[in-house]
Amino acid sequence: MYSEILVPLDGSDVAECVLPHVEAIATRNNAVGITFLYVVPPLDMPLVKHEFKSRIESEAKSGAKDYLRKLVSGLKYKERAHGQVIFGKAADSILDYAAENKMDLIVIASHGLSGIGRWIRGSVADKVMHESTVPILRIRASSPRTPFYKEGQKMVVLVPLDGSELAETVLVHVKELARQFGIQSVDIVLLRVCELFSHPHLHYPPPMPLSWEEYLKYETKKCKEICLTYLADVRKRLKKEGLNIRLEVPVGSPAEAIVEYVNRKAVSLIVISTHGRTGIGQWAFGSITNKVMRGTSTPALLVRCTNQ
């Protein structure tokens, strides 16, 4: 599935936190090509003469090329990697390059360094994650620099679902990850949050009058039954692929419950849709997925889903 991977870098150690994760993918798939993209921003110096501006830009481009050349030369998979330097606004250039060159995946750090010539902290990655139609592997710069997969260790992949077909479009990526890293090396956790008193977990007429405590217990039981039934159906479909799957149904509000689960359990990778229920609201950026990204440092594969 991932044959062409784009890795934006800005020359900082922070942005390079993605490299162990890129290596994990590249060493498991000998057919994948890696493009390291360095975007040189335009100079905002209107009072500088054109010839001086051109010289500065030329030197910046030359420095970026040297940086990428040195970086690529030290990689284990250097024969399948190359560097590319372009001028432009960082986020827009990354998005355009990915679309024009038919990239399958963008691997990006969620922070860069502020200052001249570097990404303003978080803003570039945020825009790319918000607007990209290409799947994004988001790596939190503050997380430990260990890859989400290590040879000989189990990779635990958390897949939050909300019951919608749109959210389920991430499953094709889950299956591909399992195939690439080895089905027996990957444990998949399907998770659906039991959100009490919200659609569709609402209006279960109790068989008899109950106290508030009894009613809450009744609602929780019914809600978890609906979630487990749904997840069991998804597991049944995935079992045909021979995947190792377990089910989890925490109770609470979706974002908080997912974050709490990730921070409490040993999760290697989150695979999550950037849209859910309606395709616009519940799991759109700014809502659940965004809160999960801000609340966890675990690597996350973000897959944009649409109604189209």
Count of DSSP helices? 8
**What is the fold-level CATH name, i.e. the topology of the largest domain?**
Rossmann fold
H-E order: EHEHEHEHEEHEHEHEHE
Query: What is the structural class?
Result: alpha/beta
Q: CATH superfamily of the largest domain, please? A: HUPs
What is the CATH C-level name of the largest domain? Alpha Beta
Task: State the strand order across the main sheet.
Answer: 3-2-1-4-5-10-9-6-7-8
β-sheet strand percentage: 15-25%
How large, in whole angstroms, is the Cα Rg? 22 Å
Largest sheet: 10 strands, mixed
- What distance separates the N and C termini? 21 Å
Number of strands: 10
Query: Shape from CA axes?
Result: elongated
Summarize the amount of helix as a percent range: 25-40%
Write down the oligomeric state: single chain
Describe what this molecule looks like in 3D.
The protein is α/β, with parallel strands linked by helices and 308 residues long. The chain folds into two domains: 4-139, Rossmann fold (3-Layer(aba) Sandwich), CATH 3.40.50; 155-303, Rossmann fold (3-Layer(aba) Sandwich). 36% of the residues lie in helices and 18% in strands. The chain has eight helices and ten strands. It has helices at 19-26, 50-73, 90-100, 123-131, 171-181, 212-239, 254-264, 288-295, and strands at 4-9, 33-40, 81-87, 105-109, 136-139, 155-160, 186-191, 244-248, 269-273, 300-303. It has a ten-stranded mixed beta sheet, with helices on both faces. α2 (50-73) links the parallel β2 and β3 (81-87). α3 runs parallel beside α4 (123-131) and α7 (254-264) runs parallel beside α8 (288-295). The radius of gyration is 22 Å and the shape is elongated. It starts with a strand and ends in a 5-residue tail after the last strand. Residues 112-117 and 276-286 have low confidence and may be disordered.
